[in-house]
Automatic annotation (TrEMBL):
It holds the Pfam family SIS. The lineage of its organism: Bacteria, Pseudomonadati, Pseudomonadota, Betaproteobacteria, Burkholderiales. GO terms for biological process: glycolytic process. Its main location: cytoplasm. Residues 343-419 form the HTH rpiR-type domain. This is Glucokinase. Residues 613-634 are annotated as: Disordered. It comes from Pandoraea terrae. In the N-terminal section; belongs to the bacterial glucokinase family. GO terms for cellular component: cytosol. It is found in: Cytoplasm. Residues 463-602 form the SIS domain.
Length: 634
């Protein structure tokens, strides 16, 4: 478990760009080594058209000083942004900016661009905060390796936690601020009744966030019969600090008590014996008012669990740049400096290069100089470019802790993109040629990689065996799938096998009625819900024939088939072409064809399925695919 102590050696890949982008301001820094920040600057978001533009402005502003210091260009960057991050497309909720993460990475020429939720970044900062960046408010000592809780009262209330997992932390995604508010006394019951006049559901966020202080003020004024002035949260806090407005002072104390109840709920729900931390923009501004408030008393007020909660410390985060700390930690983990077995490889390649053999160092140089080109090359081409043998390439991959070339490429892609290379970028009206071309290609590549990661070698091997031993193979598909069936017929016909493809449901039914137990049907359907195709498969099964289905995993066709090679890609509902599903089915036909080719070239081979999967692992079929061995069965 990381204790928060970080290695302060300079980053081998050069300075890293860290950003904290909100609705109003964007703050940037260069990180030269873990925790060593320089060139911290703020920008007003209204002055720029989008994320890429404000980043370019920052990079331009620090270019001369970075060059004078002998720093290389930025290759790795991470952005904490006040927005949910659910895919490649990011649309900010509090300003009219939207962007593609991958397109932005390419435009800025970064090797890595991570975009994370700002509250996730704050959560990941917790293990790296020191005593000078925290103010403890009650409780005992934090338990080492314990779960950490986090609340962030601001415009809303963020709730999260950090779960220890070996030598790293896992941030917990949560919407705990929307849990239903429960009053703890008559005063809060009156506040709840007042809030019900405006909201059908009153969550903790309605009262424990910054705007909630105004609602509490209005409710308490109504309760006491006093006139409520039209003042905002900042004025309520200012008056409470001056000590001359009893209603404002009561409002702040009530706010802190409600926050204490929520914090106690988080503590007992998560078992946060490592402490509960309070971030956000509201509490740090309260100063001594918060420490004197009912927060801690209400935190512990859990009846039989008062003793349990009394031991748990609560901290106010006072660090000036906490989001940078968390963003740095997330980027470091992504680049492999925290978790050797799961992360990217760029920094690891720099660190381990000198310890590799001379031949392996040539592969490392190739990976560092031309990483994106390497991703597309099979092992033979990588060996040729690096002037080494193919076994040396595999040894190189294993020296880095990878299982083989496939695993190395996957982790390298993760380093280059900042995420696992499985993403979907929606094509929009108005996209230029560069944008829609990249999205179509990225979507296809990502889908193939996803199939590769979930494909079962045993199922492939069983399918290859079934096809190799078949007396006759019939390929059935309707519409676009009929074209795939024709392609499959052509490939297997070249092996001298008895094959036929039918794209008409009547011909399919007629032929299926004459099959024998020695025959195999390959049924191809993106949805697996075609009534005609399913009736034909029923006829084939009734005749004793075996059926291999290329279809969605839980579809009606999959439930009938003898073997299923699943394709769970979901096409856009407004598209008339099953573009990616069609390509995935064509790829799977190629996998089966290569497997049968290997099986027939080496009679008695028992790992044809594994050989076929090399098609996916190495980026394409063998170079001699156009001259595959042809042997007439029997």
């Amino acid at each position: 478990m990381s204790s928060g102590v970080r290695n302060n050696a300079p980053h081998p890949g050069g300075p890293r760009l860290l950003a904290d982008i909100g609705g109003t301001n964007a703050r940037f820094a260069l990180e030269l080594a873990p925790g060593e920040l320089t060139e911290i600057r703020d920008y007003v978001c209204d002055d720029y058209a989008g994320v890429a533009e404000v980043i370019l402005a920052y990079l331009a502003s620090v270019e001369s000083s970075a060059s004078a210091a002998g720093l290389p260009p930025v290759c790795h960057a991470a952005i904490a942004i006040a927005n949910p991050i659910e895919g490649d497309e990011v649309r900010m909720t509090n300003r009219p900016w939207h962007f593609s993460i991958e397109a932005t990475r390419r435009a800025l020429r970064f090797e890595t661009l991570l975009v994370v939720n700002d509250f996730t970044a704050l959560a990941m900062a917790l293990p790296y905060l020191n005593s000078k960046q925290l103010r403890q408010v009650g409780g005992g000592a934090a338990r080492p390796n314990g779960v950490l809780g986090l609340l962030g009262p601001g415009t809303g209330v963020g709730v999260s936690g950090l779960i220890p997992a070996g030598d790293r932390w896992i941030a917990l995604g949560s919407e705990g601020g929307h849990a239903t508010f429960a009053p703890a006394d008559e005063r809060e019951a009156d506040i709840l009744r007042h809030a019900w006049k405006r909201f059908p559901h009153v969550s903790f966020e309605r009262l424990a966030a910054g705007p909630g202080m105004t609602l509490i003020y209005q409710a308490l004024a109504e309760r006491s019969g006093e006139p409520a002035e039209d003042i905002d949260t900042a004025e309520i806090v200012a008056r409470a600090k001056r000590g001359k407005d009893a209603l404002c002072a009561e409002t702040v104390d009530c706010f802190c008590g409600i926050l204490g109840t929520l914090a106690g709920n988080v503590a007992v729900t998560l078992g946060a014996i490592g402490g509960v931390y309070i971030g956000g923009g509201v509490v740090p501004k309260l100063g001594p008012l918060f420490e004197r408030s009912s927060f801690r008393k209400r935190f512990e007020a859990k009846g039989r669990f008062e003793g349990y909660l009394a031991k748990i410390p609560t901290f106010v985060i006072t660090a000036e740049y906490p989001a940078f700390l968390g963003t740095s930690a997330i980027l470091a983990e992504q680049l492999g400096t925290h978790a050797v077995g799961a992360g990217a490889l760029i920094d690891r390649l720099h660190r381990l290069r000198d310890s590799l053999s001379p031949a392996e160092q040539r592969v490392a140089e190739l990976a560092l100089k031309q990483p994106r080109a390497l991703l597309a090359e099979p092992v033979a081409e990588i060996a040729r470019h690096a002037r080494v043998s193919q076994p040396t390439v595999i040894r190189f991959c294993r020296s880095l802790g990878c299982q083989g070339l496939s695993d190395f490429k996957l982790k390298l892609a993760s380093a280059l993109t900042g995420t696992l290379p499985v993403r979907h970028g929606q094509v929009h009206l108005g996209d230029g040629a560069a944008e829609f071309s990249a999205k179509v290609l990225d979507n296809t590549v990502s889908s193939i990689l996803q199939v590769r990661e979930h494909l079962d070698a045993d199922t492939v091997d069983a399918a290859v065996t079934m096809l190799d031993e078949a007396r006759r193979i019939e390929f059935y598909g309707l519409g676009n799938s009929g074209l795939i069936a024709e392609d499959a017929h052509y490939k297997f016909f070249r092996f001298g096998m008895q094959t036929i493809a039918y794209g008409d449901p009547y011909l399919q039914s007629a032929s299926a009625a004459m099959l024998t137990p020695d025959d195999v049907v390959v049924a191809i359907s993106a949805s697996g819900r075609s009534a005609d195709l399913n009736r034909t498969v029923d006829l084939a099964l009734a005749r004793g024939a075996r059926v291999i289905a290329l279809t969605a995993r839980h579809s009606p066709l999959a439930k009938k088939a003898t073997l299923v090679l699943p394709n769970d890609h979901v096409e856009a509902l407004d598209s008339h072409l099953s573009m990616i599903s069609r390509i995935l089915h064509l790829v799977m036909i190629d996998v089966l064809a290569v497997g049968v080719s290997i099986r027939r070239a080496v009679p008695g081979a028992e790992t044809a399925g594994e050989g076929a999967l090399d098609w996916l692992r190495h980026g394409g079929p063998p170079e001699a695919a156009d001259n595959v061995p042809q042997r007439r069965h029997g």
